[in-house]
Amino acid sequence: MQQYVIIGNGVAAAACIEGIRSTDSVGAITVVSTENHPVYCRPLISYYLEDRTDTERMRYRDADFYEKNGCTVLYGKTAVKIDKDAKTVSLDDGTALSYTKLCVATGSSPFVPPFEGLDTVPEKYSFMTLDDAVALKTAVHKDSRVFIVGAGLIGLKCAEGLKEITDNITVCDLSDRILSSILDVQSAAIVQSHLEQQGIRFLLSDSVERFSGNTAVMKSGSEVSFDVSVLAIGVRANIGLVKDAGGETNRGIVINEKMQTSLADIYSAGDCAEGEDITFGGKRILALMPNAYFQGHCAGVNMAGGDDTFDQGIPMNSIGFFGLHTMTAGTRYDDGEVYEENTDQEVKQLFCRNGLLTGFMLVGETERAGIYTGLIREKTPLDTVNFELLKKVATSVAYSEKKRGKMFGGVV
User: How much is the pTM?
Assistant: First the structure.
C-alpha cells in the first residue's frame, strides 16, 4: 500500500488529498500540520477581525473532510528534515514518517527585517495565519494606535479588518505608493485615496529606522507612537526542507508541469513552489489560492500514479477594500501594446503582445474579468475573437458561436 505524506495543511494540501483520492482510494495519507486548525480560507482572516466570519465558516472543506478521505492529520507538528534516500520525514518531536510519495506544501512565512530595537516592542504581530488574526483581535481595542509596516496586500487587508475595531491606523512603506508590486502609480493613487477616505493614514517613501518600545523612529527622522505594531513587509517561501535535502530551489521550490521537484518521488505545490508562468515564459512563485489548488490536485494525481499536468499558471491578484475592487493578472511587456480606459475613479488596462492578451489591470469594475483571465490562460489569439468588443466589456459574445458552445456545454 502506498504511503503518502503531505507537509502542510493549506489549500494545496487539501487539493493534493483530493487528487490522490481521485486515483487511489486505499493508500495511507498522513498530513503534517504546524497549525492546530483544519484547512481554512486564509484570505478570510481579515474578515475574522471584522466579525464578518468565524472559524467554522472559514473552513475550506467540511468538518469530516479528513475522515472521509482516510487521512491522518498530525496537528501541531513541524517537519524538520527530509531524508530522500531513506524516504523519511523527521518531525520536531523526534518521530519519523516513511513515505512512498511526498508533497511539500509548506507555504510561506513573514519576512521580518532585523530592525534595531524590535525586541523592545511589547505588542508586535504578523498577519499570515488564523492564529495571528486571533491574537491581533485580542490585542487591539477601540483606543489602540495601530502601526502597520508594509503597504502591500497583507498590510492593507489587515488595516481594513482592524478599522472596525479602531480608528487610529497608520501604514508606512518604503515605496512611494501602496501595492507597489501589482499597481502602477495611477491605480495605486485611486486605491490609496479610497482607503484614506476611510480614515487610514499613510507614510510613504519612508520606513522604520529603529524601534524604541512603543515608538518607531523613521528613516525621515519623524517618530510614530503606537500601541500595537503589525509587521507586513513581505513573505518568503518555505523552501528549507527541499533545499537542505539537495533539491533545486530559487525563491521557491522548483517544480515541473507535473509538480515534481528535482528529487525523486517528491512533489511540491502552493506558495512554496516555483512553477511556470505562461505569461512570462519562465518560473515564478504564483502565490494565489486557485493556483495552489490546481498545483496541489495535479501533484496528488501524479503521486498516486495518474497522469496530470498543470501548465496554465498565471500571476493574479483579486482584492477589495471597503467596496472598491481591484484585479490584476499576467505580465506587462515594455514592447507590448496597452489598451486603456482610465478615469479618476476607475482603471482598465489590457496588455497585449504578439497577438495575445498577456495581462490586465482593473480598478473599480472587475465583474466578468474571468473572460480576460481565460484568454490569458488559454493563449487565445486575439484575431479569433472580437477584441474590439472585449476592450469595452468582458463578454462571451466576443467569442465564436462554436467556442461559446464549448464554454457553456452546448455545441461541440
Answer: 0.93
> Whole-angstrom Cα distance, residue 385 to residue 400?
7
CA distances from 375 to 44, 148, 291, 297, 310 (A): 28, 37, 16, 23, 16
Cell of 347: 482603471
Rounded to whole angstroms, what are the CA distances from 253 to 243, 265, 269?
Answer: 8, 14, 9
What averages of pLDDT result for each successive group of 10 residues across the chain (412 residues)? 97 98 97 97 94 93 97 98 98 97 97 95 96 96 97 96 96 97 94 97 97 98 98 96 98 98 98 93 89 97 97 90 94 91 93 95 92 92 93 86 65 45
CB distance 233 to 149 below 8 Å: yes
Query: What is the rounded distance in angstroms from the CA atom of residue 98 to the CA atom of residue 87?
Result: 6
- Compute the distance between CA of residue 189 and CA of residue 219 in angstroms, rounded to an integer: 23
Q: What is the H or E stretch that residue 327 is in?
A: strand 324-330
Q: Which residues contact 146 (CB under 8 A, 6 or more apart)?
A: 140, 159, 162, 166, 168, 169, 170, 226, 227, 228, 229, 230
* CA–CA separation, 269 and 107 (whole Å): 8
Q: What are the backbone dihedrals phi and psi of residue 135, each rounded to the nearest 5 degrees, phi first?
A: -65, -40
